[in-house]
Amino acid sequence: MESRYYEGCGREGPIRCIFLCEFHPVAGPKITCQVPNDYVSKETFDAVSVYIIPKAQLQRSILTVTVLGKKITGFPISIDNPKYARNAFYFNLCFVFDSWARTVHFEPVVKKLSEFLVTLEMECGFLSNDNCKVNLPSILQNILQELNWRKMCTVVVGNSTTHLKVVRVSRDPPPVEDHHVPCFTPAHKSFCREQWDLTTQQVIPFIDGFNHVAKIAAEADVENNLVKACIQNLVYYGVVRMICIFRYSAEYATTPKIKELLENEVFQKECLKYIAKSKTSKPSLRDVLLVYGGLRRGVTVKELAMRLQQHIQNLDIRKLVQFGVLTGILRRIHEYPVVLPEECAASPAIITVPPPLTPTTPRSHLLNHIHAHLHPHLSGENNSEWMGISKGLNTTDHGHGCTASYRSRLSFGRRALSSQERSMDEICVAVGCSYARLSAIMEGDPSVVILRK
Predict the structure, then answer these.
(1) What kind and span of H or E run contains 50?
(2) Helices 435-443 & 364-374 angle (0-180, nearest 10)
(3) What is the model's pLDDT at position 75?
(4) Domain 2-165 annotated CATH 3.30.450
């Protein structure tokens, strides 16, 4: 089984062994206790002993060494005192894992346990006194079993106690894009605003579950990439989740999770509280289910809201959609523009399934079409600059009245339109125009079809 895994695969593995090594004044580095016995051979230890008991510059630092199919993580420590031979006592408590295992979440445990042993050594000579150290194997065995089984452990030695817990370190969240919309989770209430850095404090007031990242950056007057980094950090800590832009012209579809709303009373109360317009007049579950049931392909939020005006008076339909997306009751039906090859666009009647884009598919005509509608005052030489951007050419400012930020936005728009994997939301934010305007431009171009999925 282990042969399927590799260094950096991200999989977590159990602790295979815990050992204590010391620097003997005569014999040098050696293992004085390990559980299970002989898991780390003398040959393996000798090969990396210089990293297990390192020079002074690396003391009190987490060190991880991979050797002969094993990954060894330790926190080497030296205790300076004239009572020891060579005026110092050197030791390292190490955890051993499979070479492919992800071990970063064990590092705080190794450090805390090592610091606990320092306290015991300074109080009663627990490590340097052989009589005191007789109980160490059973202690390490208990730690090994408890951390592998329960991910937590309580270590008691005499009157001293320490608690160990393996806290899983989450992977970095996906990159945050301009068109993403951050929305607070219930976990945000457990964080104080003062806990965050100054930039995050400046950004947080503009997070309302409806503003996209680019709009937040503009309103907070914070550089776009800084806002993305802040929001990504909030996602990492579970303070916000990313959802899609809300539009009344958008289409949504219910998922099988709607059944949970029918059966779970706690879920129902949470939903009604979240979507209510006021605390005094809460909507009925029947009205909520009526709206959720009406959202489907071919029906926009606006059309449904107009049809069910009498049933949505006590609820905020934007919050209703937001709650549905956050909980998985609803999924957004996104629109993806696809540029057809010229021969297909000339004979649309023969098209049954839009062919995928290829690297040679012409897109400049679509970009020029959008450009002409968005910026009719720009023509001639300025339009040729847009042509250069649409063809992927590098442009410079030749004094034609186009600012660098404008050209940058057009260039970003060109990249957004270069793949059928880009949704209309992303393209709207990229080129800086409304959905209605961009949709009208694309619908007027016979070479463009819109995929809804």
Answers:
(1) helix 42-52
(2) 130
(3) 94
(4) yes
State pLDDT tens for residues 64-74.
Answer: 998 888 899 99
Q: What is the spatial distance between Cα 182 and Cα 208, in angstroms, rounded to a whole number?
A: 8
> Nearest Cα to 323, choosing from 362, 284, 267?
267
Q: Confidence band (pLDDT; 50, 70, 90) for 10?
A: low
Which tokens is 319 given? Answer: 């919050």
Sign of CA dihedral 286, 287, 293, 294: positive
Average pLDDT over residues 198-222: 93
Write the pLDDT tens digit of every residue in 281-307: 888 999 999 999 999 999 999 999 999
Residue 273: the pLDDT is: 92
CA distance 24 to 137: 19
- Cα gap 340→420, rounded to integer Å: 11
CA 217, chain centre distance (Å): 19
**What span, in angstroms and rounded, lies between the C-alpha atoms of 112 and 163?**
9
Average pLDDT over all residues of the chain: 80
46: enclosing H helix or E strand: helix 42-52
- 108 touches 75 (CB < 8 A): no
Using an 8 Å Cβ cutoff, are 258 and 225 in contact?
Answer: no
**pLDDT of amino acid 394:** 34
Q: Where are the domains of the chain?
A: 2-165, 181-243, 251-332, 336-452
Quote the CA–CA distance of 430 and 416 in Å, as a whole number.
7
**Average pLDDT, stretch 405-424?**
55
Alpha helices in 130-223 (DSSP H): 136-149, 198-203, 213-220
The structure tokens listed for 58 are 């690396």
Tell me how far apart the terminal alpha carbons of the chain are, to the nearest angstrom: 38
Omega prior to 362 cis, within 30 of 0: no
- Which residues on neighbouring strands pair with residue 98, listed in sequence order? 70
State how far the Cα of 110 lies from the Cα of 59, in Å rounded to an integer. Answer: 14
* Both tokens assigned to 384: 């040729």
Whole-angstrom Cα Rg for the chain: 31
Digit-coded pLDDT (tens) for 95-152? 999 988 888 889 999 999 999 999 998 888 888 887 878 889 999 999 999 999 988 9
Q: Which residue stretches of 309-380 are H helix?
A: 317-327, 342-346, 364-374
Amino acid at 207: I
